[in-house]
Each structure stands twice: as structure tokens, then as C-alpha cells.
Amino acid sequence: MSDTAAPHRQSPQPPPSPPAAPVNRATARISTIVTAVLLAALTAVVLDTVRAGDNQSNPGRLLTGYAVAWTLFAAAIWAVRKAPARAATALVLAGSAAVALAALAALPRTSTDMYRYAWDGRVQAAGISPYAHPPAAPELTELRDDWLFPARSSCTGWGLTRTDRGLCVRINRPAVPTIYPPVAEGWYFTVHALSPPDSRHKPLQVGGAVLAFGTTLALLTVGRRRGDPRRAPARAALWGWCPAVAFEAVNNAHIDTLGVLLTVLALGTATAGARRGALLGAAIAVKLLPVLALPGALSGQRSPARVLRTVSAAVAMVAFAYLPYVAASGTGVLGYLPGYLQEEGYEPGDVHRFALLRLLLPDAAAEMTAIVVLALTALHVWRRGDPARPWRGALLLTGTSLLLVSPSYPWYSLLVVGLVALDGRWEWLTATLAGTVLYLGGRLLPGFPLQAWAYGTAAVCVALGACLRAAPARQPLDDRRPGRCRPA
């Protein structure tokens, strides 16, 4: 069935935002200069931070660098509001490129996931399914080298571990198969195939920078298409200049960035139907988290046919992506995913998650309460969401899930950063900041309930942002409308 509906059934385009207040030339010039200076400082801080060491040997220094970077980022976002649209667009593009290049200046500093990516790409290039064997398996001995399997007697240093068989390995969880879905595996193979021999970590970091910059371009395009040329640069900057993007998408090369790009394209460039569903399905087949954007993709849709086309296309894309790997590995395509979920505290009764709910409820009730809250939120987004702004409902559900689950990995929130850049609701960035504080600050404050404090502060900020947005005054990154205090 065609994805093209009659004009009266198309998802409505968002109405143009009210024109921004005129800015005199002197103010515009000063804003442009101040923004450029702040971006130069942000770039220098990112460069210095990634060169300062890793999160095990120097966590305090890294946390300080992150704090300064976030402060400069906030100041630059504030300053660029008064810059002319053309100058602001140039600053967004130049700033996005600059901070990404700065993040390329060192090895990954806070995560070893990238080494698994490199290994999975190498295994596939040898014609072997990445789900078939763990890195430490004897069947893969011929693929090992001194980079990922250094020949060291001590096997000490950041990211190194020794297996039960005595192998020194740079890959985390070397005794279990990969957990990554098939589109992610396709990316690892593509980067490996295009990389020069012995290029090690740099191609994946460069790939992360390309994906991050591509997402910035997509956000600018979406902003202009919806009749928002003045606010589009400031919103795109919420992604392009965000320290989380520099550190997690580029320096650590997390695959989540590909999922963010596909989700932005799904929600921002396609109407509800097969095309949106296929793009969102591809994002889900990168990392499972974009499934939370599906209710947003269906915001306000009453047509069963349109809902069915969107969902069916998403499911078909995931199935199609898995097909070649299922042929090679059968049910082994799940890899270590079930074990990972158990290890990370997502099994019933585990107390490593749901920090905010456990402040109010018994541990045993926290998980079920989270499921009910998320299900009701998803239903609200689908039935009451704005079809012209599907990213708004996606942000509400994805952000709420982060607050409820309270993960300790900041790269899980890259999707939230992308959705914030689509919608302009900057207060949700505090959920990203909470994950960063928890990840880097945990070893500095042993025994302190940092998880509850970090995500509790983020929840308060989100609530305050919703109340401020309900005030009648206009807000520069998003349109405020009088009404009740609500997040979406």
C-alpha cells in the first residue's frame, strides 16, 4: 500500500512559530562575537578534557572538565539566540565541527565499548557471524592482534582485563557474544571495510563525528522545513554543541548516534506511514532504545491503516535486518542481551534501577510501577499527542523512561539530546547531565545516594521547565503557551 495519503489525511505540518523579536545590528554583532568566543572556549575545554586521562585514573579531573564544558555550552546556547539566522547557522555548523574534531584528539576516555565495535567489524570481515563466538573463543584465535589482545604479563591499565584462560583483552565482557542489533553490526563492518589497515580506534571515532555532524545537518533541515528559520539554529545547537555529543558520540564513538540520526529523520522528515516506520525500525535495529519513540511517531493518529503501516514497516525493517544473521546464527542473534539486562539490573526485584520510585515505594513495587507509568505515558502520547510535532511525545516518553529507570550510562541519553534539539525543551537535558554525574562521580562519592540525587534534581528541573513554559511569556527556543504546568 502506498504511503501517500490524500491531502486531507496527511499529518499536519506544525504551524510556523511567531516571528522572533527584531534584534538591532549592534546586539546581533555582539551576540555573534560572544557566541564565537564561547564556542572557541568550549572547543578548548573538550580538547583539554579528553587529553586529561580516563575515568579510572583521573575521575575528578574529568568531572571538572565536563562541568566547565556544560557551563560554556549553556552560555553559548543563550548567546546565539540574538545572532542573525545566517550567522547563527554558520556558528552551529562550525561549532559542531570544532567540538567534534577536538573530541578526536585522544583515545576513548570513559568507555571501552568501541573496542567491541572494532572486534565485531573484524569478525564479520572474516565471514563469521559476530553472534557465533565470544572474543575469547579459541575459534577466533587467528583474528587477534596486539591492539585488542595485548601481550602483557601484568595486564594492567585502563580498559584491560584478563580472561579465565589468561588472555589479556581490551574488549569488555570478552567471554560472552556481542549484544548489538544487526544495523549496528552493519555499521561496524562498514567502518572496518573502509578503514586503512592497523588504523585502530580512529575510524570509529571519525565515523561517530560524521554521524554527529550529519544529525546537526538533519536538525537544521527539519527546523527550516517547519517554517522556523530563526529558531532552527539555536535548536540544532542543542545537539551539535552538547558536551555529551562530543564525549559520547565522538570520543567514545557510541553507536547510539546512528540511532539518533535515524530517529530524527523518521520523526522530522516523514509523515506517519511506511517511510517513518522503516526509518524508526532501522533505528531500533541499531539500539533498542528508539522503540520508545514509536508512540511519538503515532502521535494523534486515529487512522488504523496509517498506524498499521507505520508499525508494520518498523517491524518489517527490524526483521529484514536480522534475517542474514538469523540464517548464520539462529537464535544466537540475541547474543548476550538477556544476560546484559540481568547484569545491569533490569530483572524483577533488582534494586540497581528505579532510584526515584524506590524513594516512595517498596523495592518490589518499583519496577511494576515504572512499567505502568510508561505504558500510560505511551498511551497518552499516542492518543493525545500532536501529530505535527511527533518528536514532542517521543521526548516525553523517552525522557520519562530515563528518569524512572535512572541508568548510569550517559550515552543512553543521546536520543534525548536529539529529541530536545527537535523540540527545544532544554530542561530534559538535565536527564543527560544526571547520567554523566552518576557515571563519573560515583567513584568519588562511595556510599552517597548519587543516583537518586542526580535524577531527582533532573526531575525537578523538568517539572520547573514545564511550569515556566506554561507561562504566557514567549520562550526563545520553544513557543510557550498559557496553560497548565505540563511537560508535553
TrEMBL record:
Its main location: membrane. Pfam families: GT87. It is found in: Cell membrane. The chain crosses the membrane at residues 26-50, 62-81, 87-107, 204-223, 277-298, 310-328, 364-382, 394-412, 452-471. Residues 12-21 have a biased composition (Pro residues). The keyword ATP-binding does not apply. InterPro entries: GT87 (IPR018584). GO terms for cellular component: plasma membrane. It is a multi-pass membrane protein. Residues 1-23 are annotated as: Disordered. Keywords: Cell membrane, Membrane, Transferase, Transmembrane, Transmembrane helix. One of its GO terms (molecular function) is hexosyltransferase activity. Belongs to the glycosyltransferase 87 family. This is Uncharacterized protein.
